[in-house]
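Hey team,

Filing this mostly as a record. A colleague (T.K.) asked me to run one chain through the structure pipeline before their review meeting, and I want the input and output archived in the tracker in case anyone asks later how it was produced. No errors, nothing strange. Just documentation.

Input sequence:
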Amino acid sequence: MPFVHIILLPTFAFRKLLNVGKPPPEEPAAVMDPDAKTVVFAFKLACVDKVIAMTFGVLLYIISTVISILKYAQIDLSSAWFPEPFWKFYNAKLALRAYQIDGAKMRFDARQEDAYLKFQYEAVMNFWTLGFFGMCCGKKTNYDRWLDTKIRWRGAPPPGFNQQFRVFFTKLRCVQKLKKALVLFMLNICGGAVAKIPLVGPLIPVAPIGMYADVFVYRMLLSNYLFGGSQPYFDKAFTWCNYVYHYYVTAILGMCGMKLKRWVDKQIRMGEAKHDPEHDADAPEDEPAVDAAPSAAPPKNAPGSAASVSATSSTGLSA
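Output structure:
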């Protein structure tokens, strides 16, 4: 595995030098759902991506999971497993192509060689420093933070939005992560695991209690996102009772999961776009900070907040 990188590193470094100052090639965007303005949780993969996920994805996911577990012991072997940087960037591009905000799509302002060299630099430094490089310098070196700084709108930003994104970096404090783990553990004991049993599970009386775990996860995930400087949030209609109702009626006892996710997307609203100074701190040192939010504010349709995006129909977070 390291021998493969001996060949790949200078090759990608040379390609990066050749492409300095050149924008990355425009990738075809996923087809927009005509019935949905905002797509975050219920997107579908293309057939070729499903085949790749079914053939190579399972094995790569298992090995990547093992590598992630070893990181807790300060043993970072990401640099040795050569498919890892390619698989991570491929998955990131899949997710970004699927998102749709206020009818607009996003793209990466980076090439594969950029992602490869960034990933390998961080992984090798973590390996030789037993993880202390990432712990001490994570503000500037975190790979997921770097991905977020490379996200751009396709074309001009929608009115009222800027070029600040937080999609891949999980901005959760240790206390929040612990709370999430404890809540999900308790909810699964109370019926979350029961609700996952096809057909029979939803009919067990304790199943609706476990469905609160889904609502909790959706809220936690959405609170992490930042699209064009706008913080998304759920409408007041997104409640546990409404979710249970749509689980049984719209999704037919949970068997039509995509319909349920489409309903969840319909409840997403977009807050007023603001300039986040912390996003500038996350930007790599060799890049200028992104421009502040335009003066034009989005239409203020949401009560008490600003721009509201009526989310209708499909999207979903690929695992």
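Quick notes for T.K.: The radius of gyration is 21 Å. The longest strand covers residues 106-108.
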